[in-house]
Every structure is written in C-alpha cells, then in structure tokens.
C-alpha cells in the first residue's frame, strides 16, 4: 500500500503506514454505520465494514496485479475488524449521529487517494491510470459498501466526493512529474482532496447534473 | 481448489474433488432458484447460476493471485451449467419448494469454507487471512448472486450464515496450527459449519442486530 | 485485448484495434445514458461510463491473469472518458432518445465478444472457458453498470443479449477448432452476434422464461 517506502526516510514511512491503518479503520466505521440502518446481524455488518475498508485497495491491487495489501500485511485486516466492532459497540451505546463521521471520512478519502496514486506510480503506470487508481482506492470501498446495502452509491450524487479524489490525484501526479518530491506532492494532493470535499459539504460546491429523458 | 492434494492420500483427494464439484452444483441450483423469481430469460438465469457457483472461489483465487479454479479445470464450469439447466427444468416441471435446498446449501457452505481456507493455508497465508478466504469462498457467491438480483444479500441477515462459515474456518485453522492432520481438521471445520447453520435454522440461534438512527 | 496481433497481418490488427476502441466508446456512451436517468453528478456519470466500458474486459483480464488492457494501453481509458463527456454534452443539448444507441450497442457487444474470446484462446483456455470469456467481456460491463445504478441488470431479461454473445463466441471457437482462419472465424462470430441481437430486437426472438413459486 505504501510503495514509496524505499524513497522516503523511515519516519515518513511510519507516518504513512499509520495513516493507511487509520484510513482503513475510518472506512470500516462508515461501513458499520451504513449497514446499521438495515437488519443485518453482527457478522453481516463486519463483512460490509471489511468491504468498505478494504474493497477499494483490493480492487486497485488486483487491477495492478500486486499482492493484495491486506493479505501481505494482516494489520489492515485486524484494524478494520477492530474498528468495525468498536463502532458497532459505541454507536449502539452512545447513539452517535452519523454526521460525526464526515470529517474522518474525508480524511480517509484523502489518504486512500494518495496511497493509491502512489502505488500505481511506483509500478510505472501512466499518469491517467495512476490518478484513476487513486480514485478507485478512494471511492470503490464506499461504492461496494452501498452496492452490498442495495442502494445507489452515495458517491455518485454526493458532494464532489469522487471529484475531490480525482482532482487531488491529478495534482499529485502532476507535481511529481514536475519534479516536486513525492512527500510534498502527496501532502498537496491529499490536502486538496480535503479542501474540495469540505468546501462541497459546507459551501455546497457542485458539479452539473443532468437527468436524461426516459 | 484443493491444494492439499499432495499431502492427503489419493482417495481423500478424490472425495474432496467430488465434494467441490457437488458444492458448485448446489450453489448453481440456488442461483437458478433465486433468479427464477424474476423475469430473467434462460441465459440470464445461467449467468446468475454461474456467479453464485463460481463467484466466491473466483474472488478468492483472484485475491490470492492463483489461477482461477474453473479456468484451470473446466469440470467446475460444466458442473455449474449442467446443474443450472437441470434445476431450471426440474423446478419448472415439478414445482419444488425452495426450502428443499436448505440442507444442500448448508453442505455447500461447509465445503466451500473448508476448501477456501485450505487453499489459502497452502499458500502460506496468515491465520486471519486464511479463515477469511474460507468465508469469502463460502459466502461471496451468494452475495454476488443477490447483488445481481438487486436485493440485499440474504447472507447478511440470515441465520448465522457467514458466522457459521467463519467459525468453521477458524476451527480448521486452529486445529491445523495445533498439529491436527489436515483431513481431520477439515472434517471438524466443515462439520461445525453444518451444525451451527442447522442450529440457526431449526433452533433460531442468532447474533445481535442493531438498527442505527437514521 | 487483441492477442491475435502476431498472427494476423498488420492492417487487420489496426482494424481490430480501432474496433476495440470504438466498442469501448459505445459502451461508455451507454453508461452515461443509463446514469443520466439518476441524480448523479458529472463525475458519477463518468465512473459509470468507465465501468460500463472497461468492466467486462477488466474482469476477463483479471480472471485470465493478464495485464488489464486499459492499464497496458491508456488509449482505451481516454476513449472511454472522451466518449462519456461527449455523450453527456450531446445528450444534454440535443436530447437524443436512448433508442438511437441500440445499433452501436449491438456492434459493441459483437466486438467485445470476439476480442474476449480471442484473448482467452490466445492464452490456451479450453473452449468452454474461452467462449465464456467472450460473454464476460461482452456483457459484464453492462451488468456492472446496472448494478451500480441499483437496478436488475437489463442483460438478464433483455432480448437475447447474452445469448447472442454466447452463440457468437461458441461459433468463433468452433470455427477456429475446425481450421478456419482466425480472421474469418472472428468475422462470422461477430456477425452472428449482431444478427441474433437484431433479430431479437426487431422480430421478438426470445428464450424461455420461468417464474418460480415464491
């Protein structure tokens, strides 16, 4: 999941690794929250949590023919399961509103986008493919989560979700190709995902919508 | 699909192979029964049957980067198609109730769980990943079947379906790591899947459910 | 996507390549048209377009463990995005009816079926697997498109869609195994897909349907 490891100094690796684990945990929590609106049992919820947390990265790895990240390193799997169980317990007891998760979810989107784009670039993927891998990593977990819950993926109609991801991924790819060090490019790309997503939520930024004739 | 082949004596291999074919056939039948409630044509039903029968194992093989089992051995594909066509014909003529398939379906779940877990262990996957591969093999065919039929996967809310699979897979992994021979561990794991699933159906065993606030 | 390259003379390759690009573009357009009936934003529509255009071929490549075609050659990805954006613009301005796309869609189905079957044969897949890879390439883009839009895949109930694909793929495999040159076999296979599909649309050819008891 973090292919830049042999480029960046060790403490950045550790930071990126922790960030990756955090992103997985946040997405697992979002899966439980979504599944919780339906009459799923505990295990069904955990499956949805795992799909939400690991689905995007798994799809990226399968498409790029890399070892799937959570098979290579079980920690991601454990983080997703623990986060799912914790969310299940906490939400049940405290009855937290789902809106609370908007910020961590946006952070997760930024992290997944950056790590996905970097993974593809490290394998020598061309720019458009690399940026798309960032988007796939960022949003496909959520898409698969919604498909499993039998609803239209929120991502497609929600406030600049995938758009924020793609913009950040393109910025990252562009900066790297212009010679900016990977670490700074990743920071800029991730930050722009966050800013666009937050702007969409709090200021109502939107892309055009059209409804075709039946 | 049966990676333990060079460990176990030949007659156990043959048994496991036959069991694998039977599991594929049973799942194909479940696909036709599910698709049959919708206005699909014969071919659509066969596609749903194939996805139900081969989807879980395919996902496992793709994630583990093995050759997909039904591409390596066409027999599985043929078994799924024949079983699908047979079910289509028989159900149409005899009008059997779907409840009849609960027992073979539980047997299929047990078989897929065992074969999936063994496949992952043979590739050296860590215990949690190995057990999850058993679950994926066991339940993802059914999940994909329901997604294609545009309904919430039955697995998530039905009686200890995935739970039975995971419990059996964990037992199998645990027994093997404690030195129990693969054959006996597989038997114990598979049997426990069956027992839990049957207990859930006939005695109403359940996991906790929670419905989150909207 | 075009594995016959080193067999056929160069101008056939170029033709097949152009045809592959065209098929991707047509499927992307169908994705936008389908997504356009829902309140997706521009980006959501592009994602659905990409899945419709590239999903079937990606699934085929992942199952066959080949490099995914649009990662190996970015042109497909660009064709899909451009076609998606163009359709979005044109449909919005001109308000074309969706029925217009029936013919190009059938051509796309024929092209995908042929290229998918050929790709699998080139890798030495047995006949049934090879023909199924043609079907997967031809119809899974549309299936995934409909799953993302949360509806029952049109393919399963529509006029001989997947059936036409499978019949053409089997004809292609059969002709090649009888010694017919690949180019002619591909032409015959592709043409039969078109004829069956058009016959189904205009003359109402159908496969039997059955609705099981609940």
Biggest sheet overview of chain A: none
Proportion of helical residues of chain A: over 70%
Order of helices and strands of chain A: HHHHHHHHH
Report low-confidence residues of chain A grouped into runs of 5 or more: 1-9
Description:
The structure is a homotrimer of 214-residue chains. The first copy, chain A, has one domain (3-203). Chain A has helices spanning 10-35, 42-64, 69-72, 75-94, 102-122, 127-148, 154-157, 161-177, 182-203. Helix content of chain A is 74%, strand content 0%. With 214 residues, the first copy, chain A, is mainly α. Chains in contact: A-B, A-C, B-C. Chains A and C meet through helix 2, helix 6, helix 7 and helix 8 of A and helix 2 and helix 4 of C.
Brief overview, please?
The structure is a homotrimer of 214-residue chains. Chain A is mostly helical. Chain A contains nine helices and no strands.
Key traits:
mainly alpha, homotrimer, disordered N terminus, 214 residues, globular, 9 helices
List the helices and strands and how they pair.
3 copies of one chain form a homotrimer.
Chain A: H1 10-35, H2 42-64, H3 69-72, H4 75-94, H5 102-122, H6 127-148, H7 154-157, H8 161-177, H9 182-203
